[in-house]
Amino acid sequence: MTAAVPNNFGFARNPVRGVRKTVLARRHELSLPPGPKGRLMTGVLREFRSDPFEYLRGCVAEYGDVVHVPLPIHDLVVVNTPDLVKYIMGDPTRYSMVGPYAPIATRIIGGTIPLLEGDQLRERRKLMTPMFKHSSLNVLADEIVDEFATRIDRWGRWADSGQIVDLQHEIAWLTMPAFMRAMFGFVPSDAEIGQLDHDLRMLLSSFAAAIFLSPPPKFMPLPGRDTLPRAWRRITTWIETRVAHRRANPIEGTDMLQVLIDARDEDGKPLSHRDLVAELAIMITGGYETVVASVSWTLALLHRSPDDLDRLIAEVDALGGNRPTYADLKRLTWAKACFDEGQRLQGHPFHPRIALQDDVIGGHSIPKGTLVGVSVYALHRNERWWPHPDTFDPTRFTDREVIAQRPVNAFIPFGSGPHRCIGSQLGYMNAQFILALFHQRYRMHTDPGWTPKHASTFSTTIEGGLPVRLERVSADSSATQRFGR
Fold first, then answer.
1. Which of 95, 270, 416, 440 is buried deepest, with most CB atoms within 10 A?
2. What are the C-alpha distances in Å from 421 to residues 197, 206, 220, 375?
C-alpha cells in the first residue's frame, strides 16, 4: 500500500521563483509537471519527512512518471521510467551531480569523483578502474575473505547466549578493515575503526540532511560538542598520516593507495594533496557503508523468507565448509540474487541531479537549476517491471526470460551513467563472501513481529539496526534447518 498524497490547495513557497517557472512554461506553451500543491513556505515538507520513501512512491502512483514535489529551498522533480533515468543520469551536459556548486565543493573538500564531470571524471575513473577489474579483485579476494572470516568468527562469543546483537553495526566493523587491508595495505585498530565509523557517519549525515531536508550536523564548535568540521579534520589527518607512511615506506606491488600516489595527469602532474586525501576519504566511505546497509537488508529480508533462505544455505553448504574463493563466486549465484533483491527493496528515496539548462521532460517544463532525480525506492517497486513489488523474490534475478524483458535502467542499485559506482563489482564480491561465511557459521533469530524499516540515512540503513540472536551452526547442520525451526 502506498501512502496517500495530499493535494490540498496552496501557494508556492518562493513567489518570485514560482512566477519565473510559470512564465517559462507559458513561453514554451507547456505546463510544469503535475504534483501536490503543498503549503505556503513549507510545501509538502511535513509529509515528505514523515516517510520520504512511501511519499514519493505515492506521488508517482498518483501523478505519473514526471512529478513536481514542492519543498522549501528547492522543489524536486521526480522521474520514474528507465528511459528517463538514462536521460537525466546519462548526460552530464544536461544534468549534473553538483552543477554550479562544484567550485565551492572542490575548494572545501577537494576534487573527487562525485564532484567531477566530463573529461576530468573520465580521466579519474580511467585511472582507478583497473583496481576494480576481475584480475585485480581475484588478487584481493583472499585477503578480504581472511579478514571477514577472522572477524565473523569473533561473533561466536554471542552465539547461543541469547544476547541481542546489532548485526548491522557488526557488519560495519568487519567491512571497513577488510576494505582497508585489501585496497590500502593496512588494517586499522579497533580504536581507529570506532573513530572512523563515528566521523564518517557524521560526514554521511550531512549528505543525508541535504536529501532528506533534516537538521544538518552541528557546525558551531562549543565546549563538549563534536562538529562536522572536526570530524572531517580527524578523517583527513588520519588519511594524511597513512599517506605519509606509505611515501616513506613504499611497497612491492600495487594497491589503490599506491595507484593514487603514483597517478599523473597528461601533463605529468600528480594529484594535489587535497585531491588525493579527498579521493581516499570518499573511497573509504563508499567502500564500506553502502555494503553494510545492503547486506543488512538482505539478511533481514532472507530471515522473513525461509524457502529462499533454505536455497541459500544449500548453496553455501555445497562449498563443503571451505572458505569461499574468488572462483566460487560463480557458484554463489543465489547469494548474488538474494543480494540484488535485498538492494531492490532497500532502495533510496531520491538520487538528485541539477538541471544545467532549461529543458522539457515528458511535455513538461524543467527550468534551469531544478533538482531532477529518481526515487530508486519507487522505481524498484514499479509494477510494470516488478510484479508483486513488495514481495522478496530473488528469482527476479535468476530467471533469464524475466531479466531479458526488464529494461536495463529499471534496476539501478549502484546508480547509472558516468557516475555509476566504480566499485560495484567489489560490492558484489564482498556481499557474496559475507553471506557465505555467515551462513557457514550461524543462524539468526529476531524477536517475533520485528520487521526492517527504512532509515533516512545516506545509504538507507535499517532503522534501529538489525537486532538478532545468533545460533551456532552444528557440524551436522543442513539446509533444512531454517530460522526459528
1. 95
2. 21, 20, 33, 17
